[in-house]
Design a protein that fits this description.
By secondary structure, the chain is an alpha+beta fold. Helix content is 28%, strand content 39%. It contains 4 helices and 19 strands. Strands 2-9-12-11-10-13 form a 6-stranded antiparallel barrel. The two termini are 71 Å apart.
Amino acid sequence: MKNAYIPALAAITLALALPSCHKSDKEEDTALPRIMVSTPVIEDSVVIYRQYPGAITANREVPLVCLVNGTLLQKNYESGGRVKQGDVLFRIDDHTYRDAVVQAEAALATAKANLEYAKTHYAAMAEALKGDAVSEMEVEQAKSTLATSEAAVKNAAATLSTARTRLGYCTITAPFDGMVSTNLFSDGAYISGEGSPATLATIFDDNTMTVTFAIDDAAADEILEEVKEGKLDLTAIPLIFDADLTHSYTGNFSYVAPKVNTSTGTLEFQAAIQNPYKELRSGMYVAVKLPVSNDAQALLVRDASIGADQLGKYVYVVNDSNKVVYTPITTGDLVSDSMRIVTKGLQPSDKYVTEALLKVRSGMEVTPISSDSTKH
């Protein structure tokens, strides 16, 4: 009899266990969705940037010109190579100009000799006038001759200086350290440079480069005002190049145009760039990442958490009842490539949905799971 009760007890135990299993499954089915949320990040003094297209030029680009007439005898550098200040780059046949110097030297010597005679003659005439040996008219003539001789010496000296200068033009040297373009005339070519200077090449001073870009007049005034007030620093402006450069570069604000370009309504800005590795070249295009304003206290949310529809930008906020609320917002600039400034619609204590935006809807009850938005 005792063994007969065992199956019955087992059946009763199983029957009692079945309702408990079904209850667990039902609770699992009705569990609220777990949604990641975060509160906005508050940051002091957030600098806002705008990108402006610009172009780079060398600090100095000087044409090397021929100012004389003659045959190009020599080119003494490698095209595209670097030269030092004072290096001889071109030589022009100078025999005509050397002859002119010799003639000018002779003319000056003659003028000086005539001047010495005029001085002696005038002194003698002045002394003779004291004894009434000559007339005052003769003394005046001697004085005039002396003045003419002095002028002749000055004229001859000027002619000699001009002759020597022109002779110097026959040797063209580097005015500073830099890179020189290819020559535009071949050795043996006759160059007529006296009437109109003939450009032989161009030398570039690329130790320091200049980036030039334009900013809307009104925006430029606001930027300059914030710089004046110490809110913006334009001494290390980030620069972005299309070219794959080995090094990174920044610009130091150096110039703003004194007048607005009336055709574009913009002001021209310039910044100086140090070029120690000689990677930068004139004509390169660059994006200037210019600081334009400073937000004293910015409210930041993850940019990927912001949605957009016909009404504008929005985020989903989970309220104190753990319900999702559609919340319109007004946004500002992107910060650090992933965080967006919110200027209106959100409070620092609000919990906004950071993930699975397509799985939530307004009014939906959820289980919020806190996350740190700064990790995104």
